Amino acid sequence: MDKSNFAFGRMNFILLAVGMAVVIIGFILMGGEGSTADAYNPDIFSARRIKVAPVVCLLGFVSMIYAVVHKPKDE
Asked: Would you give per-residue pLDDT tens digits along the chain (75 residues)?
């Protein structure tokens, strides 16, 4: 099979997988217990959930965009 017919190379798929893993890690960082009608949980406004997790997700999405536009090298 001729590899020149593929739009993505092996490195593109690796970069996509790494970007998806980073996005999943960001969503996991956002997770946690929420507040209920009976009890207020101040952890919903922690720096991890408000600042760190969205930045991690953004970096993951940017890396996935880079993986799509990255031109595979001709071998």
From this structure: 566 677 888 899 999 999 999 999 999 999 988 878 888 888 888 999 999 999 999 999 999 999 999 887 765
Burial-class residue 56 by CB neighbours within 10 Å (0-12, 13-18, 19+). Answer: buried
Cβ contacts of 11 within 8 Å, gap of 6 or more: 70, 72, 73
Q: Tell me the one-letter amino acid at 27.
A: F
Q: What is the DSSP string of 2-28?
A: -GGG-SS-HHHHHHHHHHHHHHHHHHH
